[in-house]
């Protein structure tokens, strides 16, 4: 072999061109591989699955049984992970009759469990691991509702409209959702103190209190609600938060509405405690749902009507964002005159866009004729939605029937 240190200019250019082509090919392939990897990473991040277990009783009960057998918490956790069924779309449809949805936010969600509690309560949500304060538990996901007129309350709706008050958006997880919809209503320690909770049979700290809350994320065009830990949550502990008015509970409702739970996940009987709180509940004659009007002293409660709008002997009360209650002042005064711990006053809950004057006109006419409750609700529901043509047609039809009956007599 002859070693030649000198190359021709043509050969050097040819080698340089070959090196360039090789480098372009190599880095092109590398770029393509990175692009493909990034694409699938983005796709996978767009929907984040979460391991959710199904349990036939509250986790604390199971833990208590297994600890008596000498198992450590670590052994119990491994045992449960190996034996409990995991929620799949098919299992969710079979057990809960819902469409199961994966989270759309790419968080590293913890393992959690949906546990059957009892026939009245149904299911609750429990932690399978320790969750630090501020940690994401699950995205509250479901059907997005942006049409206020079509909105109907149920036990699985949360508000995603934000604090700006400029947009109407709800998330309805009644028929489609994930684990977040199973978090029960738990009161905060401050709320229990506010109510003056007292019990002779159990200490106040035996009650399970709220350890989570909903956080709004995203932009106005793309809102998300995430259930987060508001304090450290320990492994196998129940997860819950205070429900808001979208569920039919106006802020903080009476503590037993719907239920109180102990730290073992069991329902506390109402006979075990009492509430020393004074206040007023408005009862909606349409849905039979309640709204807590105010928690105040007796003197403040008696003078409250002065601070509210009065239209033709009816008080109009702002009970929540987008909702008003119409209360007959005579009924109000009668109830207030015999004030006791809890007053329940019949009311009509209407939309913020309802034409109040016209609604009250029809309400007074119905009172004058004394029509039955079913007919009243049909007519007033139409008036509630400003469909006064339909309301008057129904009303006139009832008047005609009444006149015909009187003529026969």
Protein described:
By secondary structure, this protein is of the alpha+beta class. Helix content is 33%, strand content 23%. The protein contains 10 helices and 19 strands. Strand 16 and strand 17 (314-320) form a beta hairpin. Helix 8 runs antiparallel to helix 9, helix 8 (356-369) packs parallel to helix 10 (388-408) and helix 9 runs antiparallel to helix 10 (388-408). It starts with 8 loop residues before the first helix and ends with a helix.
**How far apart are the first and last residues' alpha carbons, in Å?**
132 Å
Please count the helical segments. Answer: 10
Structural class determined from secondary elements: alpha+beta
Q: Mind summarizing the main beta sheet?
A: 6 strands, mixed
The overall pLDDT average reads 80
What is the CATH architecture term of the largest domain?
A: Beta Complex
Instruction: Characterize the overall form.
Output: elongated
Beta content: 15-25%
Short précis:
With 409 residues, the chain is of the alpha+beta class. The chain contains ten helices and 19 strands. The protein folds into two domains: 222 residues, SET domain (Beta-clip-like), CATH 2.170.270.10; 123 residues, no CATH class.
What attributes does this structure have?
409 residues, Beta-clip-like, six-stranded mixed beta sheet, five-stranded mixed beta sheet, 19 strands, 33% helix
């Amino acid at each position: 072999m002859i070693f030649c240190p000198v190359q021709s200019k043509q050969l050097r250019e040819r080698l340089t061109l070959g090196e360039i082509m090789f480098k372009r090919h190599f880095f092109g392939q590398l770029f393509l591989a990175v692009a493909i990897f990034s694409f699938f990473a983005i796709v996978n991040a767009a929907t984040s699955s979460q391991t959710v277990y199904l349990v036939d009783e509250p986790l604390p009960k199971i833990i208590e049984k297994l600890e008596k057998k000498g198992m450590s918490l670590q052994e119990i956790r491994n045992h449960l992970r190996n034996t409990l069924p995991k929620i799949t779309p098919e299992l969710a449809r079979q057990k809960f009759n819902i469409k199961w949805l994966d989270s759309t936010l790419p968080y590293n969600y913890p393992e959690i469990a949906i546990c059957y509690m009892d026939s009245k309560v149904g299911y609750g949500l429990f932690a399978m691991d320790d969750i630090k304060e501020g940690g994401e538990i699950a995205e509250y996901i479901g059907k997005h509702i942006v049409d206020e007129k079509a909105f109907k309350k149920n036990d699985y709706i949360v508000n995603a409209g934000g604090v700006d008050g400029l947009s109407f958006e709800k998330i309805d997880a009644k028929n489609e959702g994930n684990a977040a919809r199973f978090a029960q209503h738990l009161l905060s320690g401050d709320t229990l103190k506010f109510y003056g909770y007292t019990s002779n049979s159990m200490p106040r700290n035996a009650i399970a209190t709220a350890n989570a809350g909903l956080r709004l994320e995203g932009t106005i065009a793309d809102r998300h609600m995430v259930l987060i830990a508001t304090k450290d949550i320990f492994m196998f502990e129940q997860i819950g938060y205070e429900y808001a008015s979208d569920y039919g509970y106006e802020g903080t409702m009476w503590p037993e509405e719907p239920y109180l739970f102990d730290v073992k996940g069991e329902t506390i009987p109402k006979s075990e405690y009492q509430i020393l709180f004074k206040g007023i509940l408005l009862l909606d004659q349409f849905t039979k749902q309640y709204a807590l009007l105010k928690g105040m002293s007796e003197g403040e409660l008696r003078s409250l009507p002065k601070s509210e709008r009065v239209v033709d002997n009816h008080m109009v009360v702002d009970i929540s964002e987008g909702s008003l209650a119409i209360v007959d002042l005579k009924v109000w005064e009668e109830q207030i005159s015999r004030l006791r711990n809890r007053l329940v006053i019949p009311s009509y809950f209407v939309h913020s866009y309802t034409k109040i004057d016209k609604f009250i006109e029809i309400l007074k006419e119905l009172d004058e004729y004394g029509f039955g409750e079913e007919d009243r609700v049909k007519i007033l529901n139409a008036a509630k939605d400003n469909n006064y043509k339909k309301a008057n047609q129904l009303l006139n039809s009832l008047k005609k029937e009444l006149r015909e009956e009187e003529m026969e007599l």
